[in-house]
Amino acid sequence: MSNLKGAILAMALWVGVVFPFLLSIGIDSLQQRAYLSTTERMAELLRQEGGVSDQVIQVANNLKGKGYIVTFSKPSLVQFGEEIVIRYQYEYQNVRGKQKLDTKNKVVINKRIVAGGGSTTTPKQPQTYSVTTPE
Q1: Which of 50, 57, 53 is nearest to 79 (CA)?
Q2: Residue 88 near residue 70, CB atoms below 8 Å
Q3: 56-101: per-residue pLDDT in tens?
Q4: Mapping DSSP to helix (H, G, I), strand (E, B) and coil, where does residue 65 land?
Q5: Cα four-point dihedral sign 52, 56, 61, 65
Q6: Which of 7, 35, 74, 129 reaches 20 to 30 Å from 25, CA-CA?
């Protein structure tokens, strides 16, 4: 009889403590890996586009449907060398309830914008200087 009580106690501990703990760690690991992958891809897309273009806005709107909130510090195309801060917020359901992930990325734009590049947002035009020599 004591063997049966011990087996029932061990089963109750497994189902009540160990299994939910392992499930929680597994869900957190999968969600965090997907979150980091998404943030890396968004930063790379922003870097390639030269700022917040129509394509970047479309991807951010698609992520909204998956539970992400993506905001940009400069909502347009920017010049070479400027920095854009991207803020990500994501909520997901876990064993313990809703979990929230919140982070920021800084992206330095390495693409020079050519005027009339086909985008609806217009970048700031570079200043021109002229120099005359005494000849």
Answers
A1: 50
A2: yes
A3: 999 999 999 999 999 999 988 888 889 999 999 999 988 888 989 9
A4: coil
A5: negative
A6: 7
Helices then strands (H, E): number in the chain? Answer: 3, 3
Identify the residue whose tokens are 């347009």. 76
The predicted model scores a pTM of 0.71
Using CA atoms, how far apart are residues 21 and 66, in angstroms rounded to an integer?
25
**Which residues neighbour 4 within 8 Å (Cβ) at sequence distance 6 or greater?**
none
Instruction: Give the strand pairing for 97-108 and 83-94.
Output: antiparallel
| pLDDT, tens only, 14-61 | 888 889 899 889 999 999 999 999 999 999 999 988 889 999 999 999
Strand ranges in the chain using DSSP code E only, listed in sequence order = 68-72, 83-94, 97-108
Residue with tokens 């985008």: 119
Nearest CA to 78 out of 102, 49, 55, 50 is that of 50
Q: Which residues contact 124 (CB under 8 A, 6 or more apart)?
A: 78, 79
